[in-house]
Amino acid sequence: MRKQINMNANWTFTKQGQPAAHEIPFDPRGWESVNLPHTWNAIDGANGFDFYKGACWYRKTFAVDTAAQGQRVYIEFEGVNSIADVYVNGQHLGQHRGGYSTFRFDMTEALQIGGDNVLSVKVDNTVVDDVYPQMADFTFFGGIYRNVNMIVVSPVHIDLMDYGSSGVYIVQEQVTNERAALTVKTQLVNTDDTPKKVRLWTTITAADGQAVAYAASEAVLPAGTTQTIAQPVTLAQPLLWNGLKQPHLYTANVAIISYNDTIDELSIPFGVRYFSVDPEQGFFLNGKHLPLHGVSRHQDRKDMGWAITCKEHDEDMALIREVGATSIRLAHYQHDAYFYDLCDREGMVVWAEIPFISVMSKHELEGLNAKQQMIELIRQNYNHPSIVFWGIQNEIQIGGDSPALRKLVSELNELTKQEDPTRLSTMANVMFVEDTDPYNYVTDVIGYNKYYGWYNGKAEDFAAWIDGFHRVNPGVKLSISEYGAEGIIEYHNTDPKVKDYSEEYHALYHETVWNIFAARPFLWGTYVWNMFDFGANIRDEGGVKGRNNKGLVTYDRKIKKDAFYLYKAHWSAEKFAHIASKRYIDRPDERIAVKVYSNCEYVTLYVNGAKAAVMTGGQRVFVFPDVALTSGLNEIKVEAVANGLAYKDTAWFQLVAEANPSYEAPEEKGGFVQNWFQVPELTHITVEELVITDDVFSTRCSMGEMMEHAEARAILEKYLGNFAEHPMFGMTKGMKIDMLASMAADLFTETLMYAMNKELTAIRKPAASPAS
Q1: Quick count: other Cβ atoms within 10 Å of Cβ 187?
Q2: Can you tell me the distance from the alpha carbon of 95 to that of 121, in angstroms, rounded to the nearest whole number?
């Protein structure tokens, strides 16, 4: 029978980069003791760009019991970032390229059964040209950051070497409310040197443990072969996996029987459901409309990086449940199998994706690694009912456009549909992709990452863009795959504005955008960016290095920002009341507005013990205007009532003579792009009208297009400095200067734009260049 033995304890680790640390004997001096999960970037991965990247070594001594004699022994890694070379007793078992999926090696022949063995793993998080991601707006934490297991199985067993999958695929051929027609496909392996006759038993049990269906097959497995056995199974009157309402799970118990012995066995939880997306009405689960109120999630945690445990996964899920989300976009890579299990059990509809993000390889144009990671994602997670959408790319257009890129995106979609025709393919386009771009018609459904109200324009601009896109593309099934704004709880503003980083603007932004989305039910899903603050080593804004602060919850998960409660008021049935701007304690104004988020029927306001006002109507956002503050500390209480029960909250505001300067973010021209460019002071330039045609260079062209032309590049560097050395340069090639200008109007002034265009328009584009 199969045995799985956890191998997380008692490792040694070094950053010394020793070229032969797998050899036996070796010099252990300077190595430290660690347990898994582990990352060497737990601290420096969220403190700025200069985090440690390179090859490190892990070693572990372990014994294999004599009971394993005659069995096959595999080593399983659930996540190592990003290139792993695995050795046992000095013998190289293989290399895995990609930091997010499970992989295994057969170590049987290298082992000393009954004695001590040495497992050595070289792990390298250096970015290389043929492994994805190439560049992204999150930290690439290095290490063995998920579980490691030893698996002992019979020579005849369910396949362990099928891209890290379970070897069992429960295919939902046709599901209705009355009947679920399934096919259980199991891959059997005979590693023995003689044929083996076996029987494959599959029993389907319901949540209460009662058997509801059976299948049995006989097979003769030739020596050294793999064989797939397909077993049709029908469930009458199935209990459907129905999201948050009823996430019912069945279990497929698959066993290989030889005479009277069970020689291998797996239990696979799964759920049956059917779904669709309508371009006018949105998402449907089991024939009923289900608004996908979504949040996105990165897997890292403050001072832990990616080396988190089930405890942290559980905490994340509890917060997502509390806010009332119905869907999660698990960005931008394969997440821990445990979290997909949580999504199954909790009823979350999931968008799962690969790290084909921001920049395509400059040289490896076939996308072999992206395709490998797509296959791994699908095969390893095929049986999760929570997963409805397979994501093939995120903002891959940032690094520039090319026929090779478009070809690879199409091939990834074709591969996804080939691997799993039962689910929907999707992708997240960067905000500057045109409404009529062919990218919008590649996948089954589409998403856009739009940041009106933060990087460009104002939050209200979402309405016009969504309506315009829908009008131009009435048959395209549209979602908003990312939207958000930075919110740093240290900063506060009575009159919140774009780019002030205040908690007040963060909440006001989400109020505005949510109202726009709610009025457009044809959006099949909307995904807040992000549920949690996360490490992003390339960032330096708002006075915070190495972090993206758009989360509804802080990086350490200790503080829920005001916007969290806005969504809870709209999405959750759990009654509550929350006074916004509680952290804005020192108030320079004698009269203030008090804002309350609540999903109760009415809210009563008390100021310094006296009843001040009552608001009714269930509008979710209750604003009490013109509340007078007295000298000193003022106690503000609210009592919200629903179904005869009261829900209370309290805040304290202090009237001060002058505004507290600590509430104001450091002034930063351009925000996120503030340090990309060194712009000269332009004087004595008179802005005049320019005629710009398509046959000349201008700020309408992409950065990449101009950087490839010597004269145009010289002009850019004259006005913008040597920005090609900035870590973000690779993520700007697909952007046009005009787009960057809309993101940083203070930096890209009218005078600067005129000066650049006056010189650029004097250069004619090469005839072979595509039109800008």
Answers
A1: 19
A2: 10
Which residue in 312, 376, 395, 486 is the catalytic one? 395
Write out pLDDT tens, residues 622-659: 999 999 999 999 999 999 999 999 999 999 999 999 99
Query: pLDDT digit string (tens) for 214-269?
Result: 999 999 999 999 999 999 999 999 999 999 999 999 999 999 999 999 999 999 99
- Clarify whether 395 is annotated catalytic: yes
Check if the beta carbon of residue 78 is closer than 8 Å to that of residue 147: yes
Q: Is the peptide bond before 530 cis (omega within 30 degrees of 0)?
A: yes
- Find the Cα–Cα–Cα–Cα dihedral 493, 497, 499, 505, rounded to 10°: 60
Q: What is the pTM for the complete model shown?
A: 0.93
Helices then strands, each counted (H, E), the chain? 11, 43
* Local structure of residue 246 (DSSP, 8 states): E
C-alpha 134/C-alpha 355 separation (Å) is: 9
Residue 503 has φ and ψ, to the nearest 5°, of -65, -30
Map residue 648 onto helix, strand or coil.
strand
Closest listed residue to residue 123, CA positions, set 134, 115, 113, 131: 131
First-to-last C-alpha distance (Å) of the chain:
63
Q: How many CA atoms lie within 13 A of 173 on its CB side?
A: 13
Q: Give 562-615 pLDDT, tens digit per residue.
A: 999 999 999 999 999 999 999 999 999 999 999 999 999 999 999 999 999 999
CB environment 509-537: b (16+ within 10 A), e (fewer): bbbbbbbbbeebebbbbbbbbbbbbbbbb
The label of the residue with tokens 């560049």 reads: 135
